Every structure is written in C-alpha cells, then in structure tokens.
Amino acid sequence: MAVVWLDDVRADDLDLVGGKGASLGELTGAGLPVPPGFVVTASTYRAFIEDAGIDDELFAAVEVDHEDSAALQAAHETAHDLIMETPMPDDVREEILDAYRSVGEGDSFVAVRSSATAEDLPDASFAGQQETFLNITEEDLLDRVKECWASLFSERAIYYRNRKGFPHDKVDIAVVVQQMVDAEKSGVMFTRHPSTGKKEIIIEAAWGLGEAVVSGTVSPDNYVVSRETGEVETATIADKKTMCVRDEETGETVMRDVPNDHRHERVLTDDEVSRLLELGELVEDHYESPQDVEWAVYDGEVYMLQSRPITTIAEGDDGEEGESDSGSSRAAATGDDVLIRGLGASPGIASGRARIVTKLDHLDQVAEGDIIVTEMTMPDMVPAMKRAAGIVTDEGGMTSHAAIVSRELGVPAVVGTGDGTKTLEDGEIITIDGDKGTIREGEEPEEKQRQPVEEARPKTPVKPMTATEVKVNVSIPEAAERAAATGADGVGLLRIEHMVLTLGKTPERFIEQNGERAYVDEIVSGVREAAEEFYPRPVRVRTLDAPTDEFRQLEGGENEPREHNPMLGYRGIRRGLDNPSVFRLELQAFRRLFDMGYDNLEVMFPLVNDAEDVLRAKEHMREAGIDPEKREWGVMIETPAAALCIEELADAGIDFASFGTNDLTQYTLAVDRNNEHVADIYDELHPAVLKLIGDTIETCREVGVKTSICGQAGSKPKMVQFLVDKGVSSISANIDAVRDVQHEVKRVEQRLLLDSVR
C-alpha cells in the first residue's frame, strides 16, 4: 500500500510516515484542527529506489566531506538526477492519484510536504532540511512527490545528517499531501520561549501563507502572551512589506506587496490570540513537552499545520532564571555606538568582521569568526553559518531559518533588522548581541563574548540546604563562569574531549605537529579555567571519550578505524589503555594541575567494564606521578558490566562511581541513542536501568564508595526522587536545572525525614 490517510496515523508510526506525518496524524487523532490529507509512505520511497536498483549508487554518491561545499553540491546533483530520471511504478502512480482525487472536491490545491523518518525528534529538529511545495494540483503532484524524495539528498540535508551522525542509508522519507489552507494570515507559535524556556507563548504572524514567515522572507508581528493570564504582554508590530499568496489566475504560489493600509496593521485580533493560546496549551499537554507549532487562519478558523518539539531548550529549563528578550527588549537597547537594531533570536555576544552576503557564491568569502550579514539565510548557507561567529539578517523573526539554525548551532543571531545589508559595510568590525537584538560598531572584549552569567544566577538568593550534593555538568570550559553562578556544589562532569576536538586535529596529528608539551598545555588551560572558577568546590574531569566518527572529522582522522557502530567501539578507557602514549599526556596534565595547587580536581575514567581496566588505569596514574591514595579518582558506570562488577571496582581502590545514564541506558536496552527507529523505547527510567543504578548505590554505600549521576537524566524529577530514595551521594544537573534539582532534592529529603519519625 503506497498511501495511508492521516486519520489512521499516530505518533508511533514514525517509521512509516516520518516525523511530520506522525505528528499530523497524532494531532488529527487528538481532535485538533488539522487539514485533511494522506501520506505517501516511507516504505514506498524505499521500494522505489531498491526496485529501480539506484539505492547503492545514491548512498555512495553522498559519502562526502560535508565541509567541502563543492563536494556537497556534486553529491546533491547526482542524487537528484538519479531519483528524478527514474520512472515511478504505474501502481504507485495510480494509488497516489486516486487518493488525491478523494481530497476535498477532487481537484483541490494541496500542499506536498516532505516527512523524513529522522526529523522533529526530541534532540534534533532537522527543520528545513527537505522540500515543501504549496498550491499543487494533479498535473504536478507526482513530480513534486519525487522532488520531495530527492530533497532527502539536498546539500543541507547531507550536511545536517553528517553533523548529527545519522547514516544516510538508514533514513527514509515519506510525503504528506494535505488540502491547502488558503491562509489570510499565518505564522508560528512557540509554547515556550525558544531561547530562555520561559513559560510564555511566543506568536509570530504575517499576512498570507506561512512560507514567508518560516523562510524569513518577511519580518512578522511578534506577540508575547502570558500563559497565566492570557494577556498579550508585548505586541511588536512589524513593517510587513511582502506576503506569500496563491495567484488567482495561475494557481501558483507568488510573492505580492502587502497593501499599504495593511503593512503596519496588527495581524492578529485578541480572539485569534486567545484561540492560539488555547491550541498551544492543548498541544503541549498532549505531547508533554514544549512545541513549535505552524498555524494558519482562513475564514475565521485557526488550523494547525505542524507541531514539533522545541529542541533548543535545555531540559529542566523553565526560563525563571532569565527574562524574555523578545519584543520590548529591542526598544530598550541604547548607546551611541548602536548601528542598527533587530530581534534577538539566538542568545550570546559575538564580535567579528561583517561579511555582506547577497549571493550564494559570496559564502566562500566567509572566514572563521566573521559575522554573516544577509537579507535572509537559506538552508544552503548552513556550512558557512557554522564557520561564522554570528548572523544578522534583514528579514525574518524568531522562527525563521536563521533563528532556528543559529540557536541549534549556538551562534548569536539578530534577525529582522530591516536594512542591515545596506547599513553595515563589508569588512567593518561589529559586535552583535543576540539577547538585546543590537549591532554595535567596534569589538567587544573577548571575555564578554559569552552567554550572560546573570541568566544562570538564581533569582532566589537562599540556596536549599541538602545532604545530597547537587553539582553541575559543564560541557566546555567557557561555560564554567555561568555554571559556577548557579551555586552548585561543584562540577560533576567536565569533558576533556570538547577541548581536544576544538583543536581541529586528532591528538596524534596535533602532537606530531606541535609536540607533547603543547598538547598537555591545551588540556591544562581548559581544565584550569573550570578548576579556578569553582575552587575549592570539586571539579570532576573525565578523560578522553570521543568515538572514532568524531575524530574522523578532524585533520588526521583518515587514520581512524571505520566502525559500524562507533558507540560500541574504540572509545573511553579502552582507547586510552590501547594508546597509552596519548593517555599518559592527559594524566601529565592532571599532575601539573595538582602541582599548581588545584587540589579540587578529581579524575574520572570513562567506559570501564571491570577491575582490570581500573587497575591498569591506576598504574598509569602512578607512572604519571599521581598518587591514587592521595587524590580523588573514580569511574563512570556506563555499562551493565561495570554495574554488575561494582564490588571488584571498589576493591581496586576507586573513591567514587558516577552513572552515565545516556550510555548505561543504550547498552542495557540495546537501543542506539542516535537511531531514530528505536528512539521511542529509549528510556532512562526503564526498570532494568533503575535496578542497575539502585543495586550499585546500595553496594557502594556498604563499601564506602561515593556515588553520583552525571547523565542527562539527572535533571529529571523522577530520577532525582529515585536517586535520593536510594541514597546517592550527589546529582549533577544541566546548568539551567541546578536550582530546580536543589529544590526537588530538598523536598524528597524532607519527605524521607518525616517518614522516618511517623
């Protein structure tokens, strides 16, 4: 069967209908206002390429260096030609056309939308990676379906999958065909602030079809709506110059000038805002997570066109520690050096040379650390955006391509400036503030070009007193100041691999070119930044744990082994013990830091399996001049083997055992955490995972070994309750979740005390 109807689709049909199709089917089943339609299934696409015998050629064509723009373009062109020049089987053609004739009046305009099996996932949106076609009729329908299939191999899709580690041959694509909503007004709604996580509704609205808003072609109105009162707290009315509409004569989607009396007119009425707020509450409650919703209004009715998870909010972040920067914050920016203002769409401050990009071939001029200034970004710009220190656009709002991709890449962005490409000069030094939405002349001191510390500082000054320590995870040393501002009891996990990967070379290649001393200096510099910021609070540093596919992206990576599943391969302590020349340099860095007086450092070894691993690592510590009897050191519990062998690990002399729930879950449940096909059964709260954790804590308490958790699950209330009940020594949470976890720990501890005296 080539097609299925949205009425028959649900969220667990991801493999059949892709992320967009599954979401629309789920919304339809929940009784929400979704236009009717059907899905050309992902298995139909897979059968098409396999039966035609083009699958191997397709996947071989896209195995390229994703940082090489020319190679990306050639790969896309080859894949596109293969699909478009291959005839669609007659039975598939007829089934699609029969389904189309059942939509609406049988000759309706429809939207044809790609729906890949790896999109709209909780940890990766894949937003804008595949094609959408509007106002399509029967004449062009089949070609547009094939164009959607081919868009699975667009330059931006190849690039994004490579960065996210999704194998090309494991991703299929379905195609959603829905009756068009000839929208009078449309836009996007966030059920929480996409940068701060604050519990407020953010709505962006413009005249006509939503394509203009999503693409960033038009700067939309921006409404900030209180979730508590339903009142519009701020309404920023934009100058809406153009709109996307259907041409009455040709039926094609075209851009038209907005009539003068509508350009500065507010798009949404109070009743429409209230209806959107109502729908936003319903969809967030249904999915139990913040949502990014596309909507449209036609003839007084609000329709939902799509809903996906917001992937840019850290887990546990409710935004209470920071203020919203949308709407009125732009007007609040002051200063004689402010050149231009826009909407702060991706937080952070960055300085660099402005590079005016008006054509795609200008992208080669964008160097590392430049600020891209363009009318609006397009998906093909992503490789250059990754090189850039910041993004500025003339058009677009918080839901434009520039805003979404910048937030995901962690690049500051200011959008909707109006005339940034004309006001700013190519090559001039500017500083952009992605929080305030300002572009200033000159360069900001380097130490200020980071996430504002005050956003992480608790608003409530009194720290909850708990017996269980609450620490913080720090991914990169640059985040140490912000992490320390949370008032955490220390760092539960600082990763060395981020310091190494930023060198752009494998450790072996860097050492070959720069010497052993330089490599040790790099590690010392990074770790010292966090150790100094937290002193005397403890900082637990994990030795190198990067899989081979990450190293393969670096200079020298051609010497890395090619592994079918790098998560199960040459990484963690096994790599260190197998390659002791590099491992010993890491330990030498620790010894130097101890000699410098940083006695708050603790050494942690990743991915151990048994006591033999620990004893060998312990011997390397001694050889590096670190006394394991005087320094705090321990291991990650990431494999069932380590959990089951905890007594032997304790006998080997460890001081602590720290649970890495991401790996422990995937190894216990046989679920690759990067595989979208099994994402729905990945559960850190699975009884088997909890039993391994609980039994390990119990054994460690008996033998005097401290226990902690540093995986993402440590920020989840249910996991916090379980751990405190079991008697864990410390919990390490994400930066934005520290205060919430502190309060949750205190609540559970108080309950345990009350239960003991009742």
Specify the structural class: alpha/beta
Biggest β-sheet: count, sense, barrel? 8 strands, mixed
Helix residue percentage = 25-40%
Radius of gyration: 27 Å
Biased composition (Basic and acidic residues): 436-458
Function: Catalyzes the phosphorylation of pyruvate to phosphoenolpyruvate.
Domain PEP-utilising enzyme mobile: 367-437
Protein name: Phosphoenolpyruvate synthase
Using brief descriptors, characterize the structure shown.
Glucose Oxidase, domain 1, D-amino Acid Aminotransferase, Chain A, domain 1, eight-stranded parallel beta barrel, Dna Ligase, domain 1, 758 residues, 20% strand, alpha/beta, eight-stranded mixed beta sheet, magnesium
Descriptive account of the structure:
- This protein has 758 residues and is of the alpha/beta class.
- It has 4 domains: 3-179, Dna Ligase, domain 1, CATH 3.30.1490.20; 185-309, 2-Layer Sandwich (D-amino Acid Aminotransferase, Chain A, domain 1), CATH 3.30.470.20; 338-441, 3-Layer(bba) Sandwich (Glucose Oxidase, domain 1), CATH 3.50.30.10; 469-757, Phosphoenolpyruvate-binding domains (TIM Barrel), CATH 3.20.20.
- It has an 8-stranded mixed beta sheet. Strands 22-23-24-25-26-27-28-29 form an 8-stranded parallel beta barrel, surrounded by 4 helices.
